[in-house]
Specification:
heterodimer, A: mainly alpha, MetI-like fold, 10 helices, B: mainly alpha, 82% helix, globular
Chain lengths: 257, 255
Amino acid sequence: MKRRIPLLAYSIASLVLFFGGWQAVVSAGLVSSFVLPSPIDVIDRTITMMIRPFAGALLWEHALSSIGRFLGGFGLAAAIGIPLGLMMGRFRLLEDIVTPLFEGYRYVAPLAWVPFAALWFGTGIGGAIMVIFTGAFAPCVINAYRGARLVDRHLIEAAQTHGASELRIGWEVLLPGALPSIVAGLRISAGLGWQSLIGAELIVVSSGIGYVMIQGQSNLSPETVVTSMLVIGLVGLAIDFGLRAAETAVRRKWEGQ
Amino acid sequence: MNRSTLTGAITVVVVFMLWWLLTSGTGLINPLRFPSPEGFASALGRIWSDGYAGGTLMEHIWQSLRLVLIGFLTAVVVGMPLGFLMGYDRRIEAFVNPIFLLLRPIPPLAWIPLAIVWFGLNDASKVFVIFVSAFVPSVINTYTGVRNVRKTLIEAARVHGATEARVISEVYLPDSAPMIFTGLRLSLQASWTTLVAAELVGAFLGLGRALQTAYRDVNTSMILVTMVAIAIAGAITTILLGHVEKRVIRWRATT
């Protein structure tokens, strides 16, 4: 058999080509640095924004204010969406009532809620939270509902014959049974919610990491824009990583039983 | 009519009556917060025949639909083959995946400011961000679909002397089609979200532009009209894609 090039070599080559090519194109002046900043420009800009405020705050302060809003909207979506989904899975009547409204809501792109969010709750924290909520709500409901439908009916009946209240059935039978599906839904929710927040900050909200991007864009500072993209990507990755860990933990516990 | 549809229909009627009651019926909700059905109807009439924010409703819809279709189709035409190659050949996977893992966490909406720096506020910047948002799900789902093609099927086809072209068209593609279509649906959804955001940030025509103008004018009736138009346009494209999916899968089943 022929000696083959290890796969890792391809991966390394790819990254070297990507960053090398990017830097080379800018250094050689093929594209203006007003259009595409080089990787070195971006690193330089990131360090500057860490120590000197831009658009009113340091880079990590902008990121923190975005994360705070995200947690607010995401928490609200989970707190309302999961019980609603579970109840839809438990009570047929509720499912029939909510379904047509929910289907209508689902087709509206989350960002289309921005004007109403701003009119109802202002362009500060409230409006942003509503936009994240509209982005993150649907997967919470859908996955809790699907999870609840998968719960063994005999378990519910057993709980009923032992005189458990609906609240206890929800808390001790439906929720644990649906948990793997719910956690998977939360991951999707978090991704959509984080993305919606960035959208809201680009359009109306005047702080946070999305706002920094818009400032960078209007100041003709593409390195600021790319730096913010990097931060947004990293925070998104961290959120996803945390929820993936939760997903694995839940799944392991369930399969272990 | 079964019980579920009946309950659903009753719900919709009740919601409409509540809407009327809370707005024009009792005036509990200020029209500056949420429009009444009459306000909605007159705003719809206005944008339909006289136009609003630089165009009539049909012109806005056509502009948005056009950009979504161009961006989405380009992403599919480039993304599906790339995803296929990544699933088919481990060396291509090893080469492309690192860059993909690097770019993937950046939400498509975060490309909007850079797109404006690159292309300005015209159609090209929108098509670019739609392309970016639709590209990722197209590639990933095609790639996953092809990776999960049952190895025994491939081996069986090869043992019987099928050419590689036949293995691809008769084993790889049919077996990964459902996953690929899931990716296309996600791509289409992402396309609309991104388009609306991009047009809200800055545009001269389109549903997002109409929405932004309505927001500036604090015209809640018009905000609701454009939101409904966005939902309907999105629903139509999703349904069309569903039909294409059915056709393709049926065609695959008969050949």
